[in-house]
Amino acid sequence: MMAGWRIGGRGDGNDAATAEGELPGGLARQLTDWQGVGLIDADTAARIAAFEAARHRPRLPAALAILGFFTMALGIIAIIAANWDAIPIGLRLGLHVALNLGLGAAAWLWRGQGAAKGMPRFRLEGALLLLSLSTLALIAHIGQSFHLQGDLAGLLRGWLLLVTPFTLMAVRAPLHRSLWLSGLVAWLSAELSDYWLTLHEWRLSGTAVMLAFALLYAARALSPPLDPAWARHIGRAAVATLVAATSFVLLVLRLLLDAVPPPAVVNDATIAAIVGFVAIGGAHLLCPVDRAGTRRLFGLALALSPGLAVLPFILSQSPSAIVTGVLFCLYWVALGKLALDAQRPGFFKLAVALIALRVFVFYLEATGGLLATGFGLLAGGAVLLALALGARRIMAWGTDKVTEDAP
Amino acid sequence: MKTEISRSALILLAALLLPTLALAGWAGLIATRQAGAPSTRVEIQGFDPRDLLRGHYLQAQLTLGLPAGDAPDCVCVEPENGAPGQPATRPLPSCQPQDVGSCRHPLADPLRVLRIYVPQEKAADLERRLRKGEQTLSVAVHFQGEGRIGISDLQVDGVPVADIKGDE
Hints:
The structure holds two protein chains of two kinds. Chain A is an all-alpha fold. Among the domains of chain A are: 2-56, no CATH class; 88-176, no CATH class. Chain A is 82% helix and 0% strand. Chain A contains 17 helices and no strands. Chain B is an alpha+beta fold. Chain B folds into two domains: 1-36; 37-163, no CATH class. Chain B has helices at 7-36, 97-100, 120-132; strands at 39-46, 53-54, 57-62, 74-83, 86-91, 106-108, 114-117, 137-143, 149-156, 159-160. Chain B is globular, with a radius of gyration of 21 Å. The chains are: A mainly alpha, B alpha+beta. The A-B interface holds A 84-86, 89-90, 93, 97, 100-101, 104-105, 107-108, 111-112, 131, 135, 138-139, 142, 144-149, 162-163, 165-166, 169-170 and B 9, 11-13, 15-17, 19-24, 26-27, 30-31, 34, 56, 112, 114-117, 119, 139, 150-152, 162.
């Protein structure tokens, strides 16, 4: 069968053998399999093989070169680290400043060249990421050199103040964007933790979290002038955080906390849920495209999320476990329905899987000690199989529906 | 052929370089301010005997002979009075500029816990010295006005920490 794609019906055995030698093994097997089941013909297989072989480069020299650079870099770092205290502060800081300026200049030059020649962006993105991290290190380096008495919030505040302009203007890599967003969240958390007890005395600590989150979510409405890809990234990160946090509370946290929370905590959380509904709903409606149809309903689900997470804590202990489970299932049923309407089969499948998981947790809660017996294990396995079968059918139905409804 | 640099490219160049230049300027300002500020050497004592070391930082207080929990908000440090490394202090009526301005070495929150960076390989040794109390550790305190201070030059029995060998 290998000969089918190797020679491609052209009788060009030597070229094909060369191509096979340079192809990744997995691709060679896949081409054979695809050709064997009739997905592709011999010509197509040969063209794919030739294309992949042409762009496939031998990896050993590149790997050795990278290893060599990495070893040299480690050596330089080791030499500097061993003599760190012997290097005068001025020289150390001067070298760090020079490194940052070099990274900034390189990023600027590579940005221009990349735009002009259609070059890949990885060099630019790498320089921007290193500059951002090196700026954080430089702030810490100055603080260390002069024994400054700052705190984490101050460090992150300074870093964000300095790197945000070029990050928003030039960064496109999701990794770097996520890093910046993580820094922003870490800074907000550090600032809030400094005032947490005072805010809680006023029953406003949860409200502060909700307002901070709503502000972050509202930032996606700044496009333009904010780059649309950045706005999408911020919006998705905010939605993912809110949905994940709500699900975590309903699925895990509430079950772990046996004690009824003190009234002060419940009051704080209730106020946060009400403020969160208004603030998150308002932030959602800031974008005109989110004000109609499925998106409007999705905004409603997001705005209700803090309330859903808080509700089981407000209710008394005994029905709370049931309420928590029902709320979790209703939450994901709603999200799954919205995902279907929005032609998002992946999100729909996630919803089905999570609901199935929660139903199984229901079963575990209901049966309790029965699981320790042989019959209990048999019944548990049967429930799991039934859930898997049901979830599979529902997912298949959802996928078919998305395909049918697709324009 | 003359290459045109667009306005947005110049703004990006500024966004890429100005943060570093600002940090360099900040470091220069701190160094200049410390060099021009009146200073004196003050001994330090461990703040929490169970937990002197936090990462690379030694947690310590200035040895000023003030009672814990009853120290004034601002004091005037008087190096000319008191033993070397243990200057006397005079409580100031308040931390308002008119009171602080009357003192050459004003210090706000004199019992504050200072974090002093120590080299990693000497950290445990310095912690042991401070804990045993057999040797005196001291820092140069730079009085920057309005009660603010900067610190530098950690010494063990008068020897800069960079010059001492481990377990000396």
